[in-house]
Amino acid sequence: MARYACDYLLVAVDPVNFEKVYTEKLEAVSTVLKSTPPGAQGQKRLTSGYPSITATIVNLPEPGITYANRFSYRGEDFISETDEIHRALLHTRRLFPDRRLCFLGDAGLDDQKIFRWASELEADFIIRVAHRERLVEIYNDRLDRWETESLGDLADTVLYGDRWEVPFTHAHRVRHDEVDVGWFALRLPDEPERPLWALVADDVSRKRQLILLTNRPILDAHCARTAYDAWRHRPHIEHTYRFAQERGLEVEDMQVHTLERMRRLFALLLIAALFVYYIANVWPEPAAKWLLDLGGKLHLKLDANGPYLLLAGIAAVFITVATLSFAARFPFPRECLTYG
């Protein structure tokens, strides 16, 4: 982190479930809910596995992990998933006591306790709303009083303050959608001393609505766009998860039997992932390109200079070094070869 002069860190906090297919007897194995890959009808499914959580800095050229843990719902030290999130927030603040922090969270972090913890740590937060039915108080300027409404009703009737054209990338393709945006100040009935703001973004073409809650003041369209762009960094943590879970690192295929060993190996795999990102962003471009070519880059239009090819190139280097080191001590036995 010392390499980057960034005083405002966006930290995505995200629990994720890792699957252990058909596992029944591993230590404290849990029943977890998985959406990828989906079930036969495209629905989420219950399976054996272990929940995990990381907090990842997502607004720098390379990710930085401030907290990571694999736990079990049946473990003796398990309190709650919310408690794990609290640890992630607290540990991140201890690592960066003097920097401005903004915690980003998906709908799973839509919890009033998490709002309070972030504020107590003198950090900002931007979290996607899951509970539209939550009752909030909004100030009525005309009647000079606070009134109670449901958050969902307020979002559906918000006055749009701006319209943006926003790029979305999927499968290396970029589409541009128009988004109508509105915002308003609110407070929670049992915590009137903590002002909050809601940002409502309606995707015009796809007819989808995004509601964000934040303790960052949203006073005009510029503040709204800054908060919206900050939250759009959050999916970067899922890229790191996917890299750890899929080809190469394959975190779900860990062949150890105790929860403590799983935790250690989980940390080592995340360090390996960060090492690959470090090479991609810090090494000289010709060196990184050489590793990409060694990893199988075909120089086609659909090629991506992603971490998977880099990992394959790094693995090829290690395998070659190990092979040559072995052959130097134990030459191939050519004299024993026969024909016929």
Tell me about this structure:
This protein is 32% helix and 31% strand. The chain folds into three domains: 1-106 and 234-254; 125-232, no CATH class; 255-329, no CATH class. Helix 1 (81-95) runs parallel beside helix 2 (112-120), helix 6 (259-282) crosses helix 8 (307-329) and helix 7 crosses helix 8 (307-329). By secondary structure, it is of the alpha+beta class. It is built from eight helices and twelve strands. Strand 5, helix 2 (112-120) and strand 6 (124-128) form a beta-alpha-beta unit. The model has no long low-confidence stretch (mean pLDDT 90). The strands form two sheets. Strands 1, 2, 3, 4, 5, 6, 9, 10, 11 and 12 form a ten-stranded mixed sheet that branches. The radius of gyration is 24 Å and the shape is globular. The longest helix is centred in the C-terminal third of the chain and has 24 residues, at 259-282.
Uncertain segments of ≥5 residues (pLDDT<50)? none
Termini separation = 63 Å
Main sheet makeup: 10 strands, mixed
* Tally of helical segments: 8
Described by the principal axes of the CA atoms, the overall outline is globular
- How many discrete domains? 3
Strand content: 25-35%
Q: Tell how many strands the DSSP assignment holds.
A: 12
| Average of pLDDT | 90
Q: What's the SSE pattern?
A: EEEEHEHEEEHEEEEHHHHH
Radius of gyration: 24 Å
State the helical fraction.
25-40%
Structural class: alpha+beta
Fold blueprint:
Blueprint: E1 8-19, E2 30-34, E3 45-57, E4 64-70, H1 81-95, E5 100-105, H2 112-120, E6 124-128, E7 135-140, E8 145-150, H3 151-156, E9 162-170, E10 173-188, E11 191-203, E12 208-214, H4 221-231, H5 236-245, H6 259-282, H7 285-294, H8 307-329
Parallel strand pairs: 1-5, 5-6
Antiparallel strand pairs: 1-3, 2-3, 3-4, 6-12, 7-8, 9-10, 10-11, 11-12
Helix pairs in contact: 1-2, 6-8, 7-8
